[in-house]
Structure formats: structure tokens, C-alpha cells
Design goal:
Helix content of chain A: 40-55%
Largest sheet of chain A: 6 strands, mixed
CATH class of the largest domain in chain A: Alpha Beta
CATH architecture of the largest domain in chain A: 3-Layer(aba) Sandwich
CATH superfamily of the largest domain in chain A: HUPs
Distance between the termini of chain A: 32 Å
Number of strands of chain A: 10
CATH topology of the largest domain in chain A: Rossmann fold
Largest interface: A-B, 26 and 25 residues
Order of helices and strands of chain A: EEHEHEHEHHHEHHEEHHHEEHH
Structural class of chain A: alpha/beta
Oligomer: homodimer
């Protein structure tokens, strides 16, 4: 029996699967996230959320390929990669593997030590960049990520506590494609972390249970704790907060998304500046200078690579 | 030495008084809250915030009268009334006393048991009503309340978690007068609860330290706990949240305040319905029917008095 306290309901296994998939279908249809002819790239970490998402999308008959990004976080990354590969093999599904160290020359532990960003910030930036680039280069129509209701509520809390209106404006579960940015969707946004865990477990998915070992003290986790404390007293607050935002909040912020994108002079990916945040972060981590084709002495570029608070491509965590 | 962690500063007593008063002056001037010729009514509960506010306004030379509302909450109310009267006597200041039982026929413990609202909700409603009515009837220009930064941040969190856009639109520290509503201001909105407590203590104000005995489990307190947990990890979050709202959030909500007010058919105070929320709550508590002059059988009135979720006059706590 699976209890869903905010719905004041309990389900047997098969009914829970049905309800879970219905919530995903509802999310997809409500935001016109995925079409039957779309080539979908699902970002998989080896954790419960992304593997549950992949599982549901395969069951629903979508054309979906997995994308696993190796972060180089020791045994945690090894197990994450294995879980993703085992799932793909088990379902006969396609999996693309990108490796930060092999393909971009750094891993996350090094990036966290060397760069000016926190480990979680540079990890999120790297993921968003690689997902978008891999999707564009592979000709995919849309990237789907496993963000659940808890993730979205915690991110929204963080964005709201700072009134980061541009980020609030962009926290829709479906962001349309624009200028070098592939469409992004979050089909699990109506489902809580507990629900995705129960679903993955009951579906017999062998996912990585442990948290990333570098995540300690992460702000996002503190926002989750705060939301969980409130949710414990008032079940339904998380859903009310995020779904209420979509219904009544988001429309008020629609003019706040004023970012104008151009191609990064180094990699060609979209950015609000001259070089994208990823290239700037990577240059800083590798101790390299960013030199665009038409700037031989690299002085401006070096200045930008030192910038401490560069503009993020997207708000929220990836 | 008084430490203010979010400002990363420490002050001696006299400097702290100066800084505290400067923050009040800044709030008053930023929102054009009070004029030197205004007749000001300050709502006093006998607690640290309202007595600190009264103290500062007297020191700054404003024409200010206290208003104490007796809630009938046993020994707590007795001590609150005594503290307010002692402060007034000590400063030679004027104090108006209104008593819910004597003047309106009920006390808060009874209201909490009999009505359909929670104790805190009916208490807040009663305060807002009495403050407004007393100010109008006494010819005061403005009501000042002792809401501090912690109060405002917690209220904003609650309003935001529910995306109550009309309430969010009205959480300005200064609400102008309109149609039967006297101007309301919160000159302490830039100061934290710790700061008002330190100020009241150091100024030798004999205030009631204990919390209201009926407040246990109050949602507002849970929001304060959540904010305090986040603040402990990231000092300055509360201030960033509320001041960021004033700066970047509030302007986006300005068209959400769509309430159209008319005179309550029973008492003449402003309301969005036929009878104001106070009269409906009071009728329910006293087991009376609301009968407007032109409605002899009282059927419509009785229906409204039974309404479970009436519209509040203002958002937030009072």
C-alpha cells in the first residue's frame, strides 16, 4: 500500500503505477511537452527520478534516448554510470555517454576546488551545458529531466527568497526552444520525491540510492528541509506552492525574462555575454585564457574568465 | 555589545539606539509614513515591538497616542494591559483602552471556541477591525503597528507559499487611506525581532515577555521557524526576502489588489461583501443574526453569518 498524504489516498502497486503514469501524462499534455514523433533525450543520473522518468516515457511509447554525464565523483559516479547502463541494457534502450574529464578536460571535484563557483553550481552549469549541446548536436527535439515536485518547490523557494525575478519567470516545467537552446521539459513536476522513490523501487529499478557525497551543506537541501518541515505540519504545501506558482504566480513574472542570447565566441552555444558561463568556468578551472578568433592578445578574454559571478544560462538546479 | 549578524556589525548601547532609530526614520521617510502634524494611533499589545515603536515615535517627537485592545486572554491579557498602562504613565503619554468583552461582547478564548475561524484568525480580524474603527472615530490620520522584519518575512512566506496574490499586493509597509480605511504603517519593518527585543530591554521598557498562551501550533510561528532555520545558515535571508519583495516583487503584483470596498450594512466599516468579516464573525460567536435595516426576515443575513471562509479585510497578521 502506498500512501500519498497530500492526496489523502493509498494505492496498491498496480494502481500506484497507473496514478503515477497518469500524473506524467497530465504534465506532458498540460504543457505540450512531448510529441509522439519527437526525438527525446532524457538526462539520466542513475538516481530514482531520472530512471523513473526514462521508464515511464519508454512505457508510454515515446522515442527516447538516455544521456549520461560522467562527473568524475569517485565511486559515486562509477555506480551512477553502471546503474544507467544496466537500465539501458535491460530495456534495450539507447544511451549516450558523455564524460566531463574525457570530453571537456575536468571533473567536478577539481572544478569545485579550482573555480570561483561552488561545487554544486559548477556541476549544475556543466550539466545544463552538456545536455543542451548534446541534444542540439544529436538533432534531438527536446531534453527531459527528472526534476520532481520537491526539486521544483525547493528551487522556487530559493528563487523567491531572493526575488530573482528572471529565474522565477523561467521556472516553467516546459521551456520552448529558442536561439540555440533546445526545448526543456520536466514531466515529473507533479510528483513528489517520495512518489518517484516508491515508483522506482516498486518497478524494480536498480537505482543509486546514496546522495552525491559533495552535496553536504548545499543550499538546495536546506530549502528542501525548510519545505519538508512546513509540509509535515501542513501536507500539500509543496504542491500548493509550486502548482499555485504555475497558476497564479508565473503569469505575473512573464515580462521579467529579458535575457537576449547570442552565440558564445568560444563554443557557439547560446549566452547572454560574449563567452558563455560554461566556457568561462571551464577556462578558469583549466587555467586557460579564452581567446576568441578576432582577439589575439586575449586581454578582454582573460578578464572575463576571471569574473566571479557570471550570469547563469538557466536558473534553478539541473 | 549588540551584534547584528546580517549587517556583520556590533554596537555599544548608545550606538545601537542611534542605529535603531535611524532605521525607523529611514522606513518612515522611504514610505512617507508619518508627518509631523499627523495624529498617530499606535496599536500597543504590551509586547516588545509595539512598546519599542511607541518609545521611538515619542522620542522622534511625533504626536502619538497608544491604543490597547483587551483580548480577555486571562493573566496574559492582564499583564499586557498593565505593561501598556505603565508605559503610558511613565512617559506621560495618552492611551486609549478598548475591551473586546466590554465593547463588543466577546473575548478571544470564547471566539476561538465558538466561531468557524481559528483563534489566531479571529484575534487578527478583531484587532484590524478595532484599530481601524478607533482611528476613524477618534479622527486619527494613521495607525502604526509594531510589525518587525521577522513578522513581515513570515507573513510574506505564508502568502507566497499559497500565491495569495491579493495579499502579496497589499503587504507594503504603508497602505494609503481609502474608502473608510485609515492609513496603516509599519515603521519597524526594517528591524528584526532580536533587534526590537534588544532595544526594548536596553531602553528599560517593562514589556510582557511571554508569548500569547493560545498561539501554540500557529502557522505564522511555523513560518518563522522555517525562516529562522534558513537564516541560521544564511544570515540576511529574511531581510533579503522582505526587502527584495518590496524592491522587485511588489511592483509585479500591483494590479492584483482588486478589492472593491463598500460600507458594511451592519456597522458601516469597509468590506468587500454585504457585511464585513468582523460583523459576520461576531454574529457567529454571539449566536446572533445579522439583520440589516432593510431585511426584516434576516434570511440572507443568517446565511452570511454561517459562511465558513469569509473574506479578510487585510492580509497578514495584525
Amino acid at each position: 500500500m502506498i500512501e500519498v498524504r497530500r492526496h489523502n489516498a493509498a494505492y496498491c502497486k498496480e494502481c500506484f503505477f497507473h496514478v503515477f503514469r497518469e500524473q506524467v501524462k497530465r504534465a506532458i499534455s498540460q504543457y505540450d511537452m512531448l510529441g509522439t514523433s519527437d526525438r527525446i533525450l532524457v538526462a539520466v543520473s542513475g538516481g530514482k527520478d531520472s530512471l523513473a522518468l526514462w521508464d515511464v516515457l519508454l512505457e508510454l511509447g515515446y522515442d527516447v534516448t538516455g544521456l549520461y554525464l560522467g562527473l568524475g565523483i569517485g565511486a559515486y559516479s562509477t555506480r551512477s554510470g553502471e546503474a544507467s547502463k544496466a537500465f539501458a541494457a535491460d530495456r534495450g534502450a539507447d544511451l549516450i555517454v558523455v564524460d566531463l574529464e574525457r570530453d571537456y578536460g575536468y571533473d567536478i571535484p577539481t572544478a569545485g576546488k579550482r573555480g570561483s563557483r561552488s561545487t554544486c553550481a559548477v556541476c549544475g552549469l556543466s550539466k545544463r551545458y552538456v545536455f543542451n549541446r548534446a541534444a542540439l548536436e544529436g538533432g534531438y527535439d527536446v531534453v527531459a529531466t527528472g526534476h520532481n515536485l520537491d526539486d521544483e518547490a525547493a528551487t522556487l523557494l530559493g528563487n523567491t527568497l531572493r526575488w530573482q525575478t528572471e529565474y522565477i519567470a523561467r521556472q516553467s516545467p516546459a521551456l520552448p526552444a529558442k536561439e540555440g537552446m533546445v526545448k526543456k521539459v520536466k514531466p515529473l513536476f507533479r510528483l513528489s520525491e517520495l512518489e518517484t522513490a516508491a515508483f522506482a523501487f516498486l518497478r524494480g529499478i536498480d537505482y543509486v540510492v546514496e546522495e552525491c557525497p559533495l552535496v553536504g551543506g548545499n543550499t538546495q537541501l536546506r530549502y528542501k528541509d525548510a519545505m519538508n518541515a512546513i509540509e509535515a505540519d501542513s501536507p500539500g504545501t509543496k504542491a500548493q506552492f509550486f502548482l499555485g506558482y504555475l497558476d497564479r504566480g508565473l503569469p505575473l513574472f512573464r515580462f521579467e525574462d529579458t535575457a537576449v542570447l547570442a552565440a558564445c565566441e568560444n563554443c557557439g552555444q547560446p549566452t547572454t555575454g560574449r563567452f558563455c558561463a560554461f566556457c568561462r568556468a571551464r577556462a578558469q578551472i583549466l587555467g586557460e585564457l579564452l581567446t576568441p578568433p578576432d582577439d589575439d592578445d586575449g586581454s578582454v578574454a582573460a578578464e572575463m574568465a576571471d569574473e566571479v559571478m557570471p550570469v547563469e544560462i538557466f536558473g534553478g538546479s539541473a
